[in-house]
Amino acid sequence: MRKSLKMVIAVLAVFTLVATACGNDDDGGDGTVGYISLGDSVPFVKLVSDSIQREADAAGLDLVFCDSEIDAAKALSCAQLLGQRDVDVVLNFQVFQESSPEICAAYGDVPTIAIDIVQPPCEVAFMGANNAGAGEMAGAAIGKYFKDNFNCEYDGYISLESTAAGAANTDRMGGYRTGFTQHCDIVNERVLDGADRTDTALEQVTDLLPALPGNRIAVVAINEDGIIGALAAARTLGRDGDLYYSGQGTDPSIWCEVRDNPNYVASTAYFPERYGEILIPAAQKLLAGESVDELLFTEHQIINSENIEDIYEVTDCG
Q1: pTM
Q2: Which of 54, 56, 134, 250 is exposed most, by the fewest CB atoms within 10 A?
Q3: C-beta of residue 128 within 8 angstroms of C-beta of residue 116
Q4: CB count in 10 Å sphere of residue 240
């Protein structure tokens, strides 16, 4: 009787293992997904990270998370961690494009979906902004504003950039110029590099403005962090009304400005809170040995004071 019972238990155990294996195949492939965050201290990035975690949990995926904290050395440490954990697919949002070959090698050059910044040579797909198109949308919006309101008579064009982001910076900020010049020529252009963080943008714009007189100055930026820094600089110097803004991303940190500040002309929305809905299904395909599209663009939309409350619930503006 005991032998029969042991045999039944053994058969059931084998059946359970087979059923579990079959179930994993149906879920889109076994394996582990690694994720390198650009830096969760950045509001936009935190929304991306939260959406990835939410969708990974819903899909039952094993996700190894590491925050690079906008630091090249920490990004490499994150890559080494993912390598130690033998991840099978990586979602890579580290910002230093020139470091990508070393980053890829550190986690074994496994198939990688780059997020917003290209990651050669291990990138098999790019997910994020259509950088040139997104920049062109916001550039055209502020260019049209300057045409309609000032007949293109203005005092300067400040471009807040980050060459460390490589092609993302080149395409996005070049897109701005393409869009703006559909309506007005660019005059008295000032390019500030490394101005993709609030503190550096605040410092650089504060230093620049005393040498840039006038009350019609266009400010365009690679992200909303740069715009927030420029806004703070203008207010510190008592020049709130002199600068007109066009941003990228439309994360919650800028909603009140978009709605209430008449000088905030437009922002291209990226909907970072939805990134995971694109990234996790693509990662599942790669785990299952399937191919994915090389370009997985988020949707874009111009957001301004007229439509922001149709899309977001803007509260706590003070």
Answers
A1: 0.85
A2: 54
A3: yes
A4: 12
Q: How many Å apart are CA 75 and CA 8, to the nearest integer? A: 51
Among 298, 245, 72, 102, CA closest to 165: 72
CA 168 to chain CA mean position, Å: 10
Does residue 140 sit in helix, strand or coil?
Answer: helix
CA angle 306, 310, 316 (to 5 degrees): 85
Radius of gyration of the chain (CA): 23
Q: Got the DSSP string for 224-274?
A: HHHHHHHHHHHHHTT-TTTEEEEEEE--GGGHHHHHH-TTEEEEEE--GGG
Residue 296's pLDDT band (cuts 50, 70, 90): very high
CA atoms within 13 A on the CB side of 10: 6
What is the distance between the alpha carbons of residues 193 and 11, in angstroms, rounded to a whole number?
66
Query: What average pLDDT does the chain have?
Result: 92
Alpha helix positions (H), the chain: 2-26, 43-59, 72-84, 100-106, 131-150, 167-180, 198-208, 224-236, 255-260, 275-287, 308-311
Structure tokens at 215: 């009350």
Across 10-19, 101-110, 121-130, 217-226, least confident range:
10-19
Least confident segment among 21-30, 201-210, 227-236: 21-30
Measure Cα distances from 198 to 17, 42, 195, 211, 242 in Å: 53, 10, 7, 21, 19
What's the rounded mean pLDDT across residues 75-104?
A: 97
What confidence tier does 318 reach under pLDDT thresholds 50, 70, 90? confident
